[in-house]
Every structure is written in structure tokens, then in C-alpha cells.
Amino acid sequence: MQEGRIIKALSGFYYVESGDEVIQCRGRGVFRKRKVSPLVGDFVKFEAETKDEGYILEIMDRKNELIRPPIANIDQAIIVCSAVRPDFSTLLLDRFLVLVESKQIMPLIFITKMDLTSPEQKEAIENYKTGYEKIGYTVELLSSKDPDGKEYLHPHLTGKVSVVAGQSGVGKTSMLNALDSGLLLKTDAISESLGRGKHTTRHVELIDIAGGLIADTPGFSSLDFQELDAVELSDCFPEMDRLSADCKFRGCLHHKEPGCAVKEAVEEGDIFIHRYEHYLRFLEEIQTRKPRY
Q: Which parts of the sequence belong to the EngC GTPase domain (predicted)?
């Protein structure tokens, strides 16, 4: 029996990297019976007679997993936003951040197309950058003329498994192509009529860049909070999580409860009002969602 990591899934086959080889494998029927599917990023045990005829026998414990895109054992998420076309949205960024934080994945924020902004837009985004850095996030501003950010991104990639996430049309695949010109990943032009890009990625694959692995995926195709409970939401806002222990009531939702340290910090300007407003919006979304059966 051998061990390796799944680096690609396509048409029912799993490509397992073991040492210097990549073995084409199928999953055993036992996984279907248990309703467990191997995911790209999984560490597995397998048997193989040849490089094209292997069978996955066991999936090792995962530290995290995403449903869409289907990938496991991620270290960090590179969240790509654009300054314009589509316009920068703190609501969308915070939604991505909550999803990433809920999976214990470290986020890196990259804001592209800064050269296309007006002076007012540039100043606003620079202020947001300062604010998110104060929370503890890494934020980089990039020009559309040099979208790859090699000097910023490469040091973060080494030894890590990264997933790239972001709204359509912000330049995720273009960034990956610029990071490694040998990838030649397919990109489509932004649809002017829709103001957004077209999904071009059809499968999940881990690609070796700068001594790390990046998953080229369509990003998060689902941005809801189906797996998150109301009491867990503030854990995904680091600035609120740090204060939760100081609230009067255990399990405080930081909404209508008295003696709330988070609300006090908002009033004093120590927590950004847009972050708290987004928190309340997400909280309502979780509390009013319909159960899935």
C-alpha cells in the first residue's frame, strides 16, 4: 500500500502524487456506500499495479474541506477583488472572509485594477486596506498592468496549499497565468453586457507554483452560510472574536443583548461600522434560512 495526495480529479479519475510519480486512480465502491467522496487535496492510501491502474483504499483525516469548489486540506485562500469593473465591494469581501475563516483557512486579500480608479476611489480603497490590515489581514493593491503580484505572492505560496477565490471578472485566472507563464490556463474576456467574467475552469487541480500548490478552481460558487450557526458567526470576525469573552452573557450574539463588549467597541469606533453592519446582515441570513433536508 502506498500513500500520496490527490492533485487532480477529472471524469471519475483521481490523480495521486506519490513521490515523483502521479498515479491515475479510481475510488473503491466502499466510499460510495459511506457517502464519502475523495477530494483534491486529500491524503490517501492506494494500491497500483501500473501508473494508470490504481485504487484509492483509504482517505486520511482532513483538517478542512470546501464543498464548492470540492477541495480539502487548504492552508490559505487568496481572495481577489477588483477596485473597479466590477466595483470593489466590502460586503462581498466580508462574505468571502467569513466563509474562509469558518474553515480555519488563512485569507490573503489582493485588490486588482488600482490603476483604473479615480482619485476618490483610490483613496477610499487605500483607507479600506488600512482598516483590514488593522484587523490583522494581509492586503495588497495591484495594477492591471502588472496583475500577477509575484513579488508579493510568491513568498506566501511556498509550502502552502492555496485556493483562489473571488467574484467573476476580477482576474483570478489571469493572475495564475502571470504567476507561471507555462500554465496557459484558459481565460475569457469580460462580458461588457453583463459586466462580469465567464467561468472558464472546468475541474479542480493543484498546480505547483513557487514551491507551493494552488488550486485553479472557479472560486466559491456558493456564498451562503448553510454550514455556519448563528453563535459561530462572530468567531469569523477576528476583531469581534477577540472581544467576545468580555461580553456579559456567554453565547452573546452582539445584537440586542446588554453588556456587549462588541457593541461597545463599535460605538467607540474600535470596530468598523461596515463590518458590524455586515455581521448583522449575515446573522439575520443565518437565523432566517430554511433548513435543508
A: 72-221
